[in-house]
Design goal:
heteropentamer; A mainly alpha; B mainly alpha; C mainly alpha; D mainly alpha; E mainly alpha; C: mainly alpha; 25 helices; elongated; D: mainly alpha; two-stranded antiparallel sheet; 2 strands; 72% helix; 1% strand
Chain lengths: 101, 497, 651, 484, 177
């Protein structure tokens, strides 16, 4: 359980998240990609707390902050996706291109 | 006094907007009265002027002390001459009748606003203040051309003018900043910059700064090849706006060459004088030739501005080329060249101003600027013809009129420095003669076509305006002593220092 | 030099100012036709009186415009004679004009311009430095423009005036240069510093002066402008050819050439003068228009004066200038009467001797003087020139003699053809009293000039002009008289044979020579047309091609942006397509190089940038996932730039 | 531990309390009186502004800040900065908020949930000002979260508007992505320095390797780039300006930007000067942002989109101050002044749109100078201020920014900014042309929102006043030090 | 044993994370995501962050359930159970994901992080509490406000009715009315 392995795990989760966020058409699936990115960040934060940063109590707090961010984004995200689906019947990015140029 | 002079037109503009004046006539009278005030005040300033060789009658107030910028105005020989010319030209242009398009109030207000901006450029002694007025003049002119110009094309011309000259002025802003940053503590005070010359020399920074300024002023003046904004702006502008554009706004470019480049960076200028002079020469010859080929009255006159401003900058470059101390023998010729360039600014303002006002009269009556459609007008309009002839001869440099006093001094002063350039520049004299006499001949002489049988001669208002300008052209041509004395108070210390 | 009194200095200032003020007054009172001639003549007479006073008191004065710039005036040297000559000749001419042009709508203008012409010439004459000279010089030119274009409703006349003005102004540039060089060399414009000049500066002054004088005095190759000037009214021609304008060149040279230390100046003047005298003679002989023939003779006579100056006897030139002024004005007024009488100036259809006997006699007096027949003054002054030339040797003597005989030939020809007897001639419009009086006045002056032949008179006249008489070789005088006589006889013989009009030459040969040896055509081809073409080309270029450069640059930017703008997908795949794109770009560029002519001003730039704008807006597809891709690419770029920077700074 | 005084947070607390009060009043006020919430919100903002502006006076002593400003200090164990720049940013954000509230009264009058709107607006402002004071990575993340989360909702607030919904989801998607990236960057920073407090980070970071540092700060910068609308995370700005309710557009294009730029300044000043390469990258971002914004704005026929793109370009200019940070003492005062000028101009321009009930198309502005001369004048002043025409406030802002940039040795960036300013005139004049040079079609008789018109005129007048009174700002900020 | 468990969990979290985007239906994708988070949560417990790990697991369980329900309720994909595979800009996404992974993994492997000076003791959770109410109180407060704002905001958008009937009525631009 070395620091390096843990960080590679975090990077992998983050990378998969990036891939998902960029490749998925559906808003909900994109949000899953975004969550995976944050997941990777949480792994990195906890790892660096545990394996590098001298157990500063801020490390744990950092993870809490990240989770807060994740929760808030998920909540607002659901609300917005619901909203746009209600108004526009749009569930994928390709359906929203009225605003451009 | 100078502050009052400067802001009176602006105040008048605000009053015009606010007061319940209606009707073109009463507005014109009111605006005329407001515009008369700076002229009178500047006469007072002139009478108090001592010619000490430095700035006089300075008035200042703190503005942005943290940045080293202040409100400071004052006059020396150069700025006094140009400011007086500006006030005169504005008075003549404001009372000149045009088609106000049903918006006389806005027209006069804008014109007075432009007067404050223009006077401010010449009277400011703070570089930042100078820039402020410089830019404001663009805004005023943009709207004048756009709203009261001729047709659809006017908008494009206005925009082109605004964009092109704003590009120039922003480049100048970089130069201003460069000068500013070279002082310690940082200041925009022009007197300080002239006295200490913090960025003078041959370094990269000085060269770049000089180039930036020179580009800005070359656009404004304009020198070939930065002149392409000028013809459309002139053609599409209402005549009084053309008058101000040619008579006042172009002078800002040449004024900058003297005030900033020559006074603040003389060493750099002396090293780069030759390219500037060559550019000026090209403008002289090229401007004259292209003017010769124009078939539109206003375009033709517009291009002669390129020619005349070329003379002015040639004179400035010749004066700048040699540093005092290196060639003591050149003091007199440098002095002549610079004096000539300054007189050229004043003379060109009056002459070309008058010519452009006349195109306005032409447009009011004939609705065209095409030379080929005109002819024989002298039969119906002898006064118009006479005034046009005097103005044309003045512009082509006939002795006894203002243009000669200017150009002769430039030639004589520039000759020892750049004999070949001056010799080639003389060709401009003959080309301008050709183009102006050809213009007179084809517009006013020859048989009168049927369609102009009802052509009216100038009315009283137009005559007053024009006669005033022409009178000064003649006075400067015959007895320029009063003007040369004021200019000399500025030139002499500069060439001997 | 005598110290002039205050009054005489004022009188000198009055010389130019009186006529100019008179001119102003005339224009102001233009409605009252009856008083106009009186005012004009009064002004001239007052000027004449002032001139006499100043010629005796020799004042020096000046004015200051600024600390450096100022003019200097003096009546000196040849000027003593000139100040008097100008108003003296002008008075009869004005008298003529006030009668013959009385019904013109521009009557006041004509008289005013004639007065102004006199004033400007007086200023030129009293100039004692280059600034004053230049002012007078240019003003004279401007007046000539206005006079030639006097009848402006006929558009040919203003055009001719323009040509004449441009030709002389081209020469004026020489004076500008001379003034500038003189100032550069001596630090002042004053004539009395000219001897200090040396080297290149002196040469420039000399060259400029020669150029200016040649143009004003209608020497080669500028001579043709005098033909165009013929479109002006008769009075203007008379004045322009005699005492003003054309005289200025010879006057300035006579005054300045001796004091400019340039060795080649004098020979050049002489050579130029001789060439013009001969060429002008030939042109005058072959010309069939009375006024044009007279004009050519003017060039020729001034050529003779140039010779005199060139060989170092300016007094002879001055004397000939004076006699020539009188008889040439006389001849022109005679031509004017002929025109008035018949409506034509064609020599083949005049022969007014019977119809206008008095005019014929006065014309004959003028012609004899022109021919150089003693005892007229014109003959004396011409003999002086021959004498002067003979000092330098055979070449100039022969040349001048030939020119003299040519002048006798054309003088006789003109007199015979214009005012010879023609039995078939019917009634013509006679000249009125004032016109006749003016002609008689000038004829009188011409006759009076015969006093030059009295011993001592000429010498004192020469002294008055600050010079000396030429002591010539006796044989030269004899030779020239013989040549003149021979020419007279030849003329008579040809007249009898009826070949005097065209000498039996076909028009194909005669006309090009008569129209100044084709110089106008050449000038048209070599100067006017190229300049106009250049002007038009530049104007077109100004509208199009300069901007085309700007536009081209902008377009390249447009293409580049299009390359990037197609879509983000393609941006990622751009590597694959880059080769074909590069090929396309080259193709586009070469097409662009081919493409011009769309008129685009600086808006071309705007258009170019605008194209970039349109392209860059395509980045904003409105599709969120492509925004994501921008973020991803941007982040990679950020890191790449930072890494490069770090690598660069660590190296 | 000393600085944990509640008195440092009076403006923030005022906003929080105010938003709760607004929420409660929204629950009880009858429908007719719902617009009263605006008055409550306005009152809250006014209290907050006064509190923020009087912070220096109330904190006069007891801290060892800089000599000029002894009251400056880091509060809450170094996580929150109380300094001149934070206070200036608060004043700007809160002033904008006040103006936006005035714009919203008529615009949202028919909306049954306007109470929540004002509460969220206050919270969003709270987020923006907290951002300006944040001196800790986590505080920064959470302030951004507060600002963003409320921003998404505000943009989506028109429940019947298709454009509003689209703008909101795009705003959200871009924000969430960049936020995710930033979180990873923050984690790395924590690892590299062992802390998240700016003031403790600088020293350990000097020992960190260059490339990990680059990765870390790049990710954080991407997150902040989203907030300020800089390349590469700029894409939301035009869409939001176009689609959002106009008052909201006026708010979200300005307020978060002000806070985020201040925190960006704090953040980059933590980074080591050598070996991090951040200055060049920010310069590149600035260059790209201003150029892209201006070029894309060139042919816009919709004033709201135009303002969105111009907001992008203004971000580019503002970033010049970050480039000059630490090298020119002018940089931060210039930034503050520029932001104030920009904020006023932007609110003023949107106020014109609001006053015309959302009128956006260029052709519908023809003849505005005749039909609504004062609105036309206000819009002109705002536009010319954006261009940088003196004596409007935008001029001195650009002047000092250019000066600072040249001073910092980035002359090329200043030259580019100059070219961009010229370019920007082209599209502003493209709107001014029809306004002044064309005749109006026939009057559609559309009513005008007088309050919004007032806001437009007040903003324009403030631009003139601020331009003439430049020294007030610069002398107040003279010798101030950015705390970190 | 701990190590083997760790490796299992690590592989599980990555594989299930990958499966999120390689599955037929959104509901399944949601549960794959939850699986990934649960694995990470257990790893966090292994790393002495017991409290955080458990919170993460609980949070994600709740969230993913909501997500699944949400999809069943709203999305066009009836019951969210039908097979689906909807991607765009696939190649570019792969490149971006790989770049992100390689870059960050490289940082994780090669960067010089400080070595821990002491092991986590049993009081880590207590430490967290002290930090929350001590030095980082402001952060805690800010997080609270953010959550409050989120609640208000989400309700404002998602709630269909309010005190005054339909929330939609009148919620539009004045110019569009």
């Amino acid at each position: 359980m070395s620091r390096e392995v843990l960080l590679v795990l975090g990077a992998a989760l983050f990378g998969i998240g990036v891939y998902g966020a960029l490749s998925q058409q559906s808003f909900v699936m994109i949000m899953m990609g975004l969550e995976l990115m944050v997941n990777g960040a949480i792994v990195a934060a906890v790892t660096l707390w545990s394996r590098a940063a001298a157990h500063s109590p801020k490390g744990q707090l950092l993870a809490v902050v990240f989770m807060t961010v994740m929760a808030v984004e998920a909540a607002i995200g659901f609300a917005l996706v619901t909203n746009v689906f209600r108004i526009r019947r749009a569930d994928i990015t390709e359906k929203l291109k009225a605003l451009r140029g | 006094m100078i502050t009052v002079t400067l802001f009176l037109p602006l105040l008048g503009a605000l009053l015009l907007v606010v007061l319940p004046l209606r009707g073109e006539r009463s507005l014109r009278v009111a605006a005329g009265l407001v515009a008369l005030a700076p002229l009178v005040l500047l006469m007072v300033v002139w009478s108090r002027f001592k010619g000490t060789g430095t700035f006089e009658q300075i008035e200042s107030a703190p503005w942005i002390p943290t940045l080293g910028a202040s409100y400071m105005v004052g006059v020396d020989g150069l700025s006094l001459a140009l400011a007086a010319m500006t006030a005169l030209l504005f008075f003549a242009a404001i009372i000149y009748p045009v088609d106000w398009r049903g918006k006389p109030k806005a027209y006069f207000a804008l014109f007075l606003f432009l007067e404050t901006a223009s006077l401010g450029v010449f009277l400011s002694l703070d570089l930042l203040l100078f820039y402020v007025f410089w830019d404001l003049s663009l805004v005023g002119m943009y709207f004048l051309i756009g709203v009261w110009g001729h047709g659809e094309a006017a908008r494009r011309s206005a925009l082109k003018f605004f964009l092109y000259t704003l590009a120039g002025s922003l480049v100048m802003l970089l130069g201003v900043l460069s000068l500013y940053l070279s002082t310690a503590p940082h200041t925009f005070d022009m007197r300080h910059l002239i006295a200490t010359r913090p960025l003078d020399g041959t370094g990269l920074a000085a060269t770049l700064t000089f180039s930036g300024f020179a580009l800005a002023f070359a656009i404004k003046a304009p020198l070939v090849p930065f002149h392409t904004w000028l013809p459309p702006a002139h053609v599409d502008a209402p005549a009084p706006a053309s008058t101000i554009l040619a008579g006042v706004l172009l002078k800002m470019g040449t004024y900058g060459f003297v005030r900033i480049l020559l006074q603040m960076m003389p060493q750099t200028f002396s090293r780069l004088a030759l390219p500037v002079a060559i550019l000026a020469l090209v403008s002289v010859v090229y401007g004259a030739l292209v003017a010769l080929a124009q078939q539109n009255v206003k375009r033709r006159i517009a291009y002669t501005s390129v020619n005349h401003m070329g003379y002015a900058i040639l004179g400035i470059a010749a004066a700048a080329a040699i540093l005092p101390g290196l060639g003591g023998g050149f003091t007199q010729t440098r002095s002549l060249a610079l004096t000539g360039a300054t007189v050229e600014m004043v003379a060109h303002g009056l002459i070309t101003g008058a010519l452009f006002l006349m195109t306005g009269s032409l447009w009011r009556r004939a609705d065209t600027y095409e030379i080929s459609e005109l002819g024989g007008l002298a039969r119906r309009a002898p006064i118009f013809t006479g005034l046009a002839a005097v103005a044309a001869f003045a512009s082509l440099g006939l002795p006894g009129l203002a243009g000669f006093v200017a150009e002769f001094q430039i030639f004589v002063g520039g000759f020892p420095v750049y004999p070949w350039l001056i010799a080639l520049a003389l060709l401009g004299l003959i080309i301008t003669a050709a183009l102006f006499l050809n213009l007179l001949q084809r517009v006013f002489l020859g048989p009168l076509p049927e369609r102009w049988q009802e052509f009216r001669d100038l009315d009283r208002g137009e005559i007053v305006s024009l006669a005033m300008l022409i009178a000064f052209v003649v006075v400067i041509g015959v007895a320029p002593g009063w003007l040369l004395a004021v200019i000399d108070s500025f030139v002499r210390p500069l060439v001997t220092r | 030099m005598r110290i002039p009194s205050e009054g005489s200095a004022l009188a000198m200032l009055a010389l130019p100012l009186l006529p100019l003020l008179g001119a102003g007054t005339l224009l102001f009172l233009r409605g009252k036709r009856s008083v106009l001639p009186i005012i004009a003549l009064a002004a001239l007479l007052l000027t004449l009186a002032s001139a006499v006073w100043t010629a005796l008191s020799l004042p020096v004065s000046g004015w200051a415009w600024g600390p450096i710039l100022g003019g200097r005036l003096a009546v000196a040297g040849l000027g003593r004679m000139m100040v008097i000559l100008v108003p003296a000749i002008a008075a009869p001419v004005v008298l003529y004009a006030s009668s013959s042009n009385r019904r013109d709508s521009g009557f006041a203008r004509l008289l005013a311009l004639l007065l102004a012409f006199v004033g400007a010439m007086e200023l030129l004459v009293i100039a004692d430095d280059f600034l004053a000279l230049l002012i007078g010089w240019e003003l004279v030119g401007a007046c000539s423009w206005a006079l030639i274009g006097y009848e402006w409703t006929d558009s040919a006349r203003p055009r001719a005036a323009l040509d004449a003005f441009l030709t002389t102004r081209a020469g004026d540039l020489g004076l500008y240069i001379a003034a500038a060089a003189a100032f550069a060399g001596t630090g002042s414009f004053r004539f009395d510093t000219l001897p200090q000049l040396h080297g290149t500066t002196a040469a420039i002054v000399a060259g400029g002066l020669l150029l200016a004088a040649a143009a004003k005095s209608a020497q080669l190759p500028f001579s043709p402008w005098l033909f165009r000037a013929m479109l002006g009214p008769t009075a203007a021609s008379a004045l322009l050819h005699s005492a003003t304008m054309v005289a200025a060149g010879a006057y300035a040279l006579a005054r300045l050439a001796p004091i400019i230390p340039v060795p080649w100046l004098a020979p050049s003047i002489a050579a130029l003068g001789l060439a013009t005298a001969l060429a002008g003679g030939v042109v005058a002989v072959l010309q069939t228009d009375l006024k044009k023939a007279l004009a050519a003779s003017t060039s020729a006579q001034y050529g003779l004066m140039f010779v005199a100056i060139g060989v170092g006897v300016p007094a002879a030139a001055g004397m000939h200038l004076a006699t020539h002024a009188a008889f040439k004005a006389l001849l022109f007024l005679g031509a004017g009467i002929a025109l008035h009488a018949t409506g034509t100036l064609e020599l083949s259809s005049l022969r007014l001797g019977r119809a206008l006997p008095l005019t014929a006699i006065t014309f004959a007096i003028g012609a004899l003087a022109l021919a150089g027949v003693p005892p007229l003054g014109g003959a004396y002054s011409k003999e002086q020139i021959v004498a002067a030339a003979s000092q330098t040797g055979l070449f100039f003597t022969a040349g001048v003699t030939a020119a003299a005989s040519l002048s006798a030939l054309y003088a006789g020809r003109l007199a015979l053809l214009a005012f010879g007897p023609d039995p078939n001639r019917g009634e013509v419009r006679p000249p009125n009293g004032a016109v006749t009086a003016s002609v008689l006045l000038l004829a009188g002056v011409t006759l009076v000039s015969s006093v030059l032949w009295f011993p001592g008179v000429a010498a004192s006249v020469a002294e008055l002009m600050g010079g000396e008489l030429a002591i010539g070789e006796g044989w030269a005088a004899g030779a020239s008289l013989v040549a003149i006589a021979a020419a007279g006889i030849a003329c008579w013989l040809l007249w009898r044979r009826g070949d005097l009009v065209d000498f039996g030459l076909s028009p194909k040969v005669r006309l090009p020579v008569a129209e100044w040896l084709g110089i106008p055509l050449v000038a048209d081809m070599l100067v006017k047309r190229p300049v106009l073409t250049l002007a038009r080309t530049l104007a077109t270029m100004d509208d199009r091609i300069i901007d085309a450069g700007v536009r081209g640059a902008a377009r390249i930017a447009g293409y580049v942006s299009r390359l990037f703008g197609h879509s983000l997908e393609q941006l990622v795949d751009a590597g694959v397509n880059s080769l074909s794109t590069a090929t396309r770009l080259v193709a586009e560029a070469s097409r662009m190089a081919d493409d011009r002519g769309v008129d685009a001003t600086i808006e071309g730039a705007a258009r170019g940038v605008g194209a970039v704008g349109t392209q860059s807006r395509r980045l904003q597809t409105g599709l969120s996932h492509q925004y994501y891709l921008i973020v991803a690419i941007g982040t990679v770029l950020l890191i790449a730039i930072a890494s490069l920077e770090i690598v660069a700074t660590h190296r | 531990m000393s600085g944990m005084t509640v008195s440092d947070l009076i403006p923030e607390l005022a906003l929080l309390v105010g938003s709760v009060v607004v929420l409660i009043s929204a629950l009880f006020l009858p429908r007719r009186l719902q617009p009263m919430n605006a008055a409550l919100a306005l009152l809250t903002v006014v209290i907050a502004v006064v509190a923020a502006a009087s912070l220096p006076a109330s904190l006069k002593s007891g801290f060892q800040g800089s000599a000029m400003h002894p009251w400056q200090h880091l509060s809450f164990s170094g996580t929150y900065a109380i300094d001149s720049f934070a206070i200036a940013a608060k004043v700007i954000v809160l002033s904008v908020t006040a103006l936006v509230i005035a714009l919203s009264v008529d615009w949202f009058r028919s909306d049954p949930r306007q109470g929540e709107y004002y509460a969220l607006l206050l919270m969003s402002a709270l987020g923006a000002i907290t951002l300006a004071g944040a001196a800790d990575m986590m505080e920064m993340v959470l302030a951004m979260l507060l600002s963003s989360a409320t921003g998404y909702v505000l943009v989506a607030f028109h429940r019947k508007s298709r454009r509003s919904a689209e703008a909101a989801i795009k705003y959200y998607l871009l924000g969430a992505l960049t936020n995710g990236a930033m979180l990873y960057g923050v984690a790395l920073f924590f690892g590299l320095s062992g802390t998240t407090v700016f003031s403790d980070m600088a020293a350990p970071l000097r020992l960190a390797g260059a490339l990990p540092l680059v990765a870390a700060w790049s990710l954080v910068v991407v997150g902040l780039a989203f907030k300020i609308g800089a390349v590469p995370a700029h894409a939301w700005l035009p869409d939001v300006a176009d689609g959002a309710p106009a008052p909201v557009a006026a708010f979200v294009t300005v307020a978060p930007k002000v806070g985020a730029l201040i925190v960006l300044a704090r953040f980059v000043s933590v980074l080591p000067e050598d070996g991090a390469g951040w200055r060049v990258v920010i310069a590149a971002v600035a260059a790209l942002t201003m150029t892209l914004g201006n070029i894309a704005a060139l042919w816009q026929d919709d004033i709201r989109r135009l303002l969105g793109w111009s907001a992008v370009s203004q971000t580019g200019y503002a970033l010049m101050a970050i480039v000059a940070l630490g090298r020119s003492s002018l940089a931060l005062p210039a930034l503050i002044y520029f932001l104030a000028a920009y904020a006023l101009g932007n609110v003023g321009a949107f106020a014109v749109v609001v006053a015309l009930r959302g009128r956006a198309k260029r052709e519908r502005y023809a003849g505005l100078a005749r039909s609504h001369p004062w609105l036309a004048a206000a819009l002109t002043v705002c536009f010319l201020s954006f261009v940088g025409i003196p004596p409007l406030a935008g001029f001195a802002g650009k002047l000092t920014l250019f000066g600072a940039t040249i001073d910092a040795g980035y002359t090329w960036l200043a030259v580019l900014a100059v070219l961009n300013s010229v370019l920007s005139l082209a599209y502003y004049a493209r709107f001014l042309g029809p306004i002044y040079f064309d005749e109006a079609p026939e009057q559609s008789g559309a009513s005008m929102d007088r309050t919004a018109a007032g806001v437009a005129i007040v903003s324009a007048a403030a631009l003139v006043g601020l331009g003439l009174g430049t020294d007030i700002v610069f002398s107040a900020l003279a010798n101030s030090v950015l705390l970190r | 044993m701990r190590v083997a468990l760790f490796w299992m969990l690590a592989v599980a979290s990555i594989v299930s994370g990958w499966r999120v985007f390689r599955t037929d239906s959104m509901v399944r994708a949601a549960y794959w995501l939850m699986a990934s988070f649960v694995a990470v949560g257990i790893i966090m417990v292994q790393l002495d962050a017991e409290f955080l790990g458990l919170v993460l697991i609980l949070m994600m369980a709740g969230e993913m359930t909501i997500m699944a329900v949400f999809m069943v309720m709203f999305m066009m994909n009836p019951a969210g159970l039908n097979p689906m595979m909807m991607v765009h800009q696939h190649r570019a996404s792969i490149v971006a994901g790989v770049l992100a992974f390689v870059g960050l993994a490289g940082v994780g492997i090669f960067a010089r992080f400080p070595e821990p000076t002491l092991r986590a003791s049993g009081q880590v959770t207590a430490q967290l509490g002290h930090e929350l109410l001590g030095d980082s109180m402001l952060i805690f407060e800010t997080a609270g406000v953010a959550l409050l704002a989120t609640m208000i905001g989400a309700l404002a958008i998602a709630g269909a009715t309010g005190r005054f009937g339909s929330a939609d009525e009148g919620s539009q631009e004045p110019g569009e009315a």
